[in-house]
Amino acid sequence: MATFCERVWAETAELRGAISALPFNRELAAGTLAEDRFRFYMIQDALYLDDYSRSLAAAAVLAPDSDARCFFAAAAEEAIVVERALHAGFFEKFGVTPEDAAAAEKSPTCTAYTNFLLATAHTGSYAELAAAILPCFWIYWDVGLAIAKESAPDNPFAAWVETYSDDAFGDQVRRAIAITDQTAETAGEAECGRMRAAFVLSTQYEWMFWDSAYRLETWPVTA
């Protein structure tokens, strides 16, 4: 019998295919992505990870066993420390000053995605939160592995590709999948339905996040 994660992964196959086919990811693999689009993406990703780390920390608090608590607590720290180092390198390489980063505001998509995660952390169950958190892990690894297979020689975005196709990151993803499956095993039918909805919505937001970076998304009106 298929596990919860196997089922939702299969159910989102078409959506995940659309993520891989996005111009942002195709051009990232080819090394031809415009620098302004990548700069926009990295700034928004840094803003996203600030709140994603809070969601991971909330999962650590809610987790019913010590292994899951340790995993989510370590992941929350890594989202801040390791990713900060990656972003700092790209910011320097692609001309993003500390002032630019400090002045940046979340795009509409980044705002919606992080608000969903934080709302789930505060109003949903631990099981829903684990499912909502998982796509950021799993889809990045899936995209990273796919791009690594066809990445252009001397790709200017090689560090990004290497980070998300790395075996160590894959181990994290496998652990997140195992924790989510373990959680689903003890969840009732209704809660599993909410877990599925959370996983699907986060996957949709993943599509929107890369698409918004390619479009250099801005708010349609400003104060």
Structural overview:
The protein has 11 helices and no strands. By secondary structure, the chain is an all-alpha fold. It has a single domain, classed as Heme Oxygenase, Chain A, CATH 1.20.910. It starts with a helix and ends in a 9-residue tail after the last helix. The mean pLDDT is 93.
Largest sheet: none
Top-tier CATH class? Mainly Alpha
Tell me roughly what share of residues is in helical segments.
over 70%
Approximately how much beta-strand content do the residues carry? under 5%
Brief characterization of the structure:
The protein has helices at 4-11, 13-20, 23-30, 35-62, 66-93, 98-103, 108-123, 126-150, 158-165, 167-185, 189-214. With 223 residues, the protein is mainly α.
Give the secondary structure arrangement, pairings included.
Blueprint: H1 4-11, H2 13-20, H3 23-30, H4 35-62, H5 66-93, H6 98-103, H7 108-123, H8 126-150, H9 158-165, H10 167-185, H11 189-214
Features:
single chain; mainly alpha; Heme Oxygenase, Chain A
